[in-house]
Specification:
This protein has 150 residues and is of the alpha/beta class. 24% of the residues lie in helices and 37% in strands. It has 3 helices and 8 strands. The strands form 2 sheets. Strands 1, 2, 3, 6, 7 and 8 form a 6-stranded mixed sheet that branches. A two-stranded antiparallel sheet has the order 4-5.
């Protein structure tokens, strides 16, 4: 699994001009699921996200987690996170999981994120053409890949 996490002061996702998910202060998570991903990858990633200390404390230092600030999540599926640009100029998405595998994993990720965090979790619509809007707070953007645990 690969995620791009953006700390936001607000974010929303629209499908056909209609808002499907909207949050205020919290994290926008763009989630890409790879063909080799499993529930162990998901558990590791969820723990990392929920405990990630990227919100400012009273001294302006990034010492607080999303739980500490009672923030919100917006999770958007994005298979293009697994694009390979190794050859040529047209990206290959061969590493991205097919929808029949990726969609249940995405739904499980959202369910477990709600359970682990006890926070508001909004989503887009899996597989839909979406418009994502955000105000990046900081800006703070972090990329995490379960296949490259740094």
């Amino acid at each position: 699994m690969r995620v791009v996490i953006q700390r936001v002061s607000e974010s929303n996702v629209k499908v056909d001009g209609e808002i499907k998910g909207q949050i205020s202060k919290g994290l926008l998570i763009l989630l890409g699921i790879e063909i080799e991903d499993n529930e162990q990858d998901m558990e590791w990633l969820l723990n990392k996200i929920v405990q990630l200390r990227i919100f400012d404390d009273k001294q302006g230092l990034m010492n607080l987690s999303i739980s500490d600030i009672q923030g919100e999540f917006l999770v958007v599926s994005q298979f293009t996170l697994h694009a390979s640009t190794k050859k040529g100029n047209r990206p290959s998405y061969i590493r991205a999981a097919r929808p029949e595998f990726a969609e249940p994993m995405y739904e499980l990720f959202v369910k477990k994120l709600k359970e682990k965090s006890n926070l508001k979790v909004q989503t887009g619509i899996f597989g839909a053409m979406m418009e994502v809007s955000l105000i990046n707070d900081g800006p703070v953007t972090i990329i995490i890949d379960t296949k490259n645990r740094e």
